[in-house]
Amino acid sequence: MSAYNWIQVRGHCPSCGGFADLVAQTHMASDYDGDEGGRFHDRSYQLGERMNWWGRGDLRYGRWKEGNLVRSIKVEDDEDYECCYSSCRVCQASLYLVICFKDCCPVKCLEIGKEENWPSQYYK
Ligand SMILES: [Zn+2]
Q1: pLDDT value at position 89?
Q2: Which residues surround ligand 1, an ion (CB under 5 A)?
Q3: d(C-alpha 23, C-alpha 103), whole Å
Q4: CA–CA–CA angle 71, 75, 76 (5° rounding)
């Protein structure tokens, strides 16, 4: 079982068309270890909010990246992408959210879709 966190995104649900609170499960910056503030697991973040993680000086810092791009598409050194499982709280549809992360921070939601249309460039 792997550790994970949650990203909260306001967006249009492609299933019901409503503007809804979508919650995506992410493996970025997740670990059952932690610091004095607690484990890096099962925490909830907004876009733009830096995730709790070891500092840059720590050897474990680089482990924050847990993206699931199939091919090693060129990304910046401190950037990664993840296609995350999500669902709509209004209609309960199963969705995916593609989120861009930089420096341990979810910066942008690039795409919202139905889970059945999971983009092929990301592992499930
Ligand atoms: Zn919906």
Answers
A1: 86
A2: 13, 15-16, 88, 90-91, 93
A3: 21
A4: 160
Average pLDDT, integer, range 18-31? 94
Contact 98, 109 (CB under 8 A): yes
Asked whether residue 1 carries a pLDDT value surpassing 70, the answer given is no
Q: What secondary structure letter does DSSP report for 122?
A: B
In this structure, what token pair is assigned to residue 105? 């921070």
Cβ-based neighbours of 74, under 8 Å, separated by 6 or more? none
| Distance (Å) from CA 40 to ligand 1 centroid | 29
Question: What's the number of CA atoms in the CB half-sphere (13 Å) around residue 61?
Answer: 11
**How many A from CA of 38 to the centre of ligand 1?**
33
